[in-house]
Amino acid sequence: MKIVNARLRKKEGLFSLELTAGRIAAITAQPDSIACAPGELDAAGNLVTAPFVEPHIHLDATLTAGEPAWNMSGTLFEGIERWAERKALVTHEDIKTRAKKTIDMLVDHGIQHVRTHVDVTDPTLAALRAMVEVREETRHLIDLQIVAFPQEGIESFAGGRALMEEAVALGADVVGGIPHFENTREQGVSSIRFLMELAERTGCLVDVHCDETDDPHSRFVEVLAEEARVRGMARGSPPATPRRWAPTTTPTAPSCSAC
Ligand SMILES: [Zn+2]
């Protein structure tokens, strides 16, 4: 495959890009705009870049604003309340349909790598089960990482720890958390210790909604960093077990309703 008349970042003029076996084999400067041959792709002077990454989205909650009610205060905590109401209405197909519609929007904007948080504070794990299917069914479009995200807490939600374990067993790639939302500071700390132990044991990555609050006493990032240090999971440390997720292609941004 060949892309002609492409503009590249921080470069003057137009370029041709030759692709072989899914990789860029050659980039050639063009003296001027050239005619596009059959089978070639004409960038028509537009920018050609590496695909973008969407590092934080909630595909299970996407496209639900106003259902069943709007977040009138505009606060995070009312947003979580509104989502808890909507969550009671979700079905397997509802989740899949909205997630795929959003993935199409992401793809249309040049995004190829997506990390989605999926609420696992649901005894049926309906959203997680649906999203595992979506990951497979959209593999030809995007690389999708699934975070087991305890929206209503690990320690504060009945069966929270077991649901996190089950979500990882069902195929979540990443372990999440929300320590500032737990009922007490102590529960926030123990939730971090639990999720780090789970990640260490299973080889999952870690992605925590941490100190997402205006409360200056919320200091869970320190706890998370210390847990990473003592477990040898800090940046640069080799993981105890291989990371579960490995990108299949080379790799950066819509929004989440809950955070
Ligand atoms: Zn979020």
Number of strands: 9
Order of helices and strands: EEEEEHHEHEHEHEH
CATH superfamily of the largest domain: Metal-dependent hydrolases
Q: Could you report the average pLDDT, rounded to the nearest whole number? A: 90
Low-confidence stretches: 245-258
| Helix residue percentage | 25-40%
CATH architecture title of the largest domain: Alpha-Beta Barrel
Strand content: 15-25%
Structural class: alpha/beta
Radius of gyration: 21 Å
Q: CATH fold name of the largest domain, please?
A: TIM Barrel
What small molecules does the structure contain?
zinc ion
Tags for this model:
19% strand, disordered C terminus, TIM Barrel, 6 helices, alpha/beta, four-stranded mixed β-sheet, 259 residues, binds zinc ion
Write up what this structure looks like:
This protein is α/β, with parallel strands linked by helices and 259 residues long. The chain has two domains: 2-42, no CATH class; 52-258, TIM Barrel, CATH 3.20.20.140. The protein contains six helices and nine strands; from the N terminus they run βββββααβαβαβαβα. It has helices at 76-87, 92-108, 126-137, 160-170, 185-202, 220-230; strands spanning 2-6, 14-20, 23-30, 41-42, 52-57, 111-119, 143-149, 174-175, 205-206. It has a five-stranded parallel beta sheet with strand order 5-6-7-8-9. Helix 5 links the parallel strand 8 (174-175) and strand 9. Helix 5 (185-202) packs parallel to helix 6 (220-230). Residues 245-258 have low confidence and may be disordered. Zinc ion (ZN) binds next to loops.
